[in-house]
Amino acid sequence: MKRTEAFLLDLDGTLYRGTEVIPDAPDFLRWLIETDRKYLFVTNNSSRRPEQVAEHLRRFGIPAEAEHVLTPSMVAAQYIKEQGAGNRVYVIGEEGLRSALIEAGCEITDEQPDYVVQGIDRQFTYEKLMTASLRIQSGAIYLATNVDKALPTEKGLMPGAGSLLAAVATASGCQPIVMGKPEARMIDHALEMLGVPKERAIVVGDNLETDILAGVNAGVRTALVLSGFSKRDHVAETDGKPTIIVDSLSDLIRLVE
Ligand SMILES: [Mg+2]
């Protein structure tokens, strides 16, 4: 575990839990900064702009800047740019997705789009579903930011981007190309941003099915932190096995220092 240069950090369940900071998260970030490690906050949340994600973290006392944030909206924007197959996009999504696409030079339109890009959209309607389905049937390429079915809240599980994905995929008869974790694409993108080879990086997260599987899919080491969603007993039942399991971020420091 020595010589770990780059840390790809999950947010909810790893650095904070809902509205509460995880006690050693601010110190963990300070340790990364003091020891000159490279790091990125790698989130599956497409709704916020990087600056909003950083601001959210700073409210928990966690040092964070927009340049250290990677969202699946940014990965989608980059994907469209690289493909060179047009830049007209029909969007089902919120501010974070729209702004990432516009910054990458995409034109947001519901007329003859080259892509339908879908993330979480808390203003989702039948009309949006219909438009997405019709445009995909006419040949637009369907991209989804992430497959998370539900978002845990104090009230219970709220529908996530994956629930809207199920509607669009069912209506159009087409499965999307997915940008976020557990796809390797998100981790590859993060390593490219940091300029670090796979062997020097580690994915840190609380969810076996998204964070850890993303690392496994990308061939990067992983640390499961038992501060959130996945528990030690879940490890035996999943495909993506973590390289290490730690109770806390302080334990992780001891293993990589
Ligand atoms: Mg998490």
Task: Describe the structure in brief.
This protein has 257 residues and is an alpha/beta fold.
Give me the strand/helix succession: EEEHEHEHEHEEHEEEHEHEHEEH
Low-confidence stretches: none
Instruction: Provide the CATH top-level class of the largest domain.
Output: Alpha Beta
What general outline do the C-alpha atoms trace? globular
* Main sheet specs: 6 strands, parallel
Per CATH, what is the topology of the largest domain?
A: Rossmann fold
First and last CA, distance: 9 Å
The oligomeric state of the chains shown is single chain
> How many distinct folded domains?
2
| Radius of gyration computed on alpha carbons | 18 Å
Would you kindly provide a written description of the structure presented here, covering whatever features stand out?
The protein has helices at residues 25-34, 50-59, 72-83, 95-103, 126-137, 161-172, 184-194, 208-218, 249-256, and strands spanning 6-9, 16-17, 20-21, 38-42, 69-70, 88-92, 107-108, 115-118, 141-144, 150-153, 156-159, 177-178, 201-205, 221-225, 244-246. It is α/β, with parallel strands linked by helices and 257 residues long. The protein folds into 2 domains: 6-44 and 181-256, HAD superfamily/HAD-like (Rossmann fold); 73-178, Rossmann fold (3-Layer(aba) Sandwich), CATH 3.40.50.1000. The strands form 4 sheets. Strands 5-4-1-13-14-15 form a 6-stranded parallel β-sheet, with helices on both faces. α3 (72-83) packs parallel to α4 (95-103), α5 (126-137) packs across α6 and α7 crosses α8. The protein is globular, with a radius of gyration of 18 Å. It starts with 5 loop residues before the first strand and ends with a helix. The site of magnesium ion has 8 residues, from loops.
